[in-house]
Amino acid sequence: MALLEGLDELILDALRDVPHPMHQTVEQALALIQQLKPSRAWFTHIAHDLPHSETNERLVSMGFPHVQLAYDGLEFGVQADAVSRVSNEREASPVSRAAPANTRSTRLSAFSSSEAWASRYANFGHSSVLAIGNFDGIHLGHQAILRTAVERAHALNAVSTALTFDPSPRKVLRPESAPPRLSTNAQRMEWFNALGLEAVVVLPFTLDLARLSPSEFVEQILDRDLHVKGVLVGENFRFGHKQAGDVKLLSALGSKHGFDVVIIPPVVYRGEVVSSTIIRREVAEGDVSHAARLLGRPFALTGEVFTFPTLNLAVEQELLPARGVYITRTCFEGETRSHRSVTNIGMRPTFNGSSLSVETHLLDAQLTTAPKRMEVCFWKRLREEKKFNGPEELRAQIAADIARANKFFSRLRRFRSIRQPATAGG
């Protein structure tokens, strides 16, 4: 049994609440979990009289938020330990969560409450290095905060964690002035993972949360639940009821509760401070090239494809680029390779269209089956939307747009090949 203690993931048989001659009950499985103390556990071989949602809620109320019923399609990322980390080393010292740099898992764990994070980590003696913010778009300024959090967490053997909110605080407190979001939660999770974070806590922003004073926010969430060793924020960070807390107060509370506060200065690009506000403006005006420089990646729209072979996107984002024609790259669900493409955002005025559409034409592929979902990344705006005299004039313009897009990609490819460093073999 000792070999099963402290596992990241534990799967247990738990058929039902009523005893069974061949299977464990939920009560027996929970007794094993208390003994083995896994970071997370899953129940399988579940009977039909053990309803999923009600049972998961019951497990949380019983003090087991890290235990859930398994489901069809559940997948695990398994990371094998190096040979040098087997039993002898394990007996000599407590097991470290941090694997060697070249073997550390990049899977992100997401939580909807600080209590759930505590059940996964704090209850087993782990602390966090925390980056706090809305992180809409995860632009270059956000990336500076998050990368520093990852670095400090590795140095302190802590859990690199982002604390963010959904919906955004302004959408709850001042909905009439809340700006459209640049990214969906799914996109933010993808980018958190790409930056090397181990965990993210997405707190539902409610009026009750908004009423917490700065000291209550720190005591209840940062100190009690997240066991912070360090907190990283931007210079303009505000927190607590009526935004009464600033970085000066956070630093004072950090001294009181025993954690460091690191203030990350803003990132400046060509004399302009990188911010979500500026990126929203650039996207809304159609300057997706400048937006991409501030984001550190192209602005992207995602969603389901609802027409084929014309690829019309049911957009999930709140903000769209200005109407017009764009050079894009398109990636379909389940694929890793993206395709050259041209995307039109507009009302199709030549055909007296009455609704806004996001329509993509692939340049380097012809699909034989309809894709379910796609991501469209915006590289450059070619032109504004225009009403033509008829289909022939429109077809000629589309051909010109495609030619310009292919020329752009060819130049980009040549530029990248020039920048590619020479190999040792010449």
State Rg: 25 Å
- CATH fold node name of the largest domain: Rossmann fold
Helix proportion: 25-40%
Total count of strands:
17
Tally of contiguous helical segments: 13
Describe the structure.
The strands form four sheets. This protein has a six-stranded parallel β-sheet with strand order 4-7-6-5-8-9, with helices on both faces. It has a six-stranded antiparallel beta barrel with strand order 12-13-16-15-14-17. It is 33% helix and 23% strand. Mean pLDDT is 85; it is low at 79-105 and 422-426. The protein starts with 8 loop residues before the first strand and ends in a 7-residue tail after the last helix. With 426 residues, the chain is of the alpha/beta class. Helix 9 (214-225) crosses helix 10 (247-257) and helix 11 packs antiparallel against helix 12 (288-295). It has three domains: 2-69, no CATH class; 104-266, 3-Layer(aba) Sandwich (Rossmann fold); 289-418, Riboflavin kinase-like (Elongation Factor Tu (Ef-tu), domain 3, Beta Barrel).
Keywords:
globular, six-stranded antiparallel β-barrel, Rossmann fold, alpha/beta, Elongation Factor Tu (Ef-tu), domain 3, single chain, six-stranded parallel sheet, 17 strands, 426 residues, 3 domains, 33% helix
Describe the protein's topology.
Elements: E1 9-13, H1 26-36, E2 40-44, H2 52-61, E3 67-69, H3 87-92, E4 109-111, H4 114-120, E5 128-132, H5 140-156, E6 159-166, H6 169-173, H7 185-194, E7 199-204, H8 207-210, H9 214-225, E8 228-234, H10 247-257, E9 260-264, E10 268-269, E11 272-273, H11 276-285, H12 288-295, E12 299-307, E13 311-315, E14 324-332, E15 339-346, E16 357-362, E17 373-383, H13 391-419
Parallel strand pairs: 1-2, 2-3, 4-7, 5-6, 5-8, 6-7, 8-9
Antiparallel strand pairs: 10-11, 12-13, 12-17, 13-16, 14-15, 14-17, 15-16
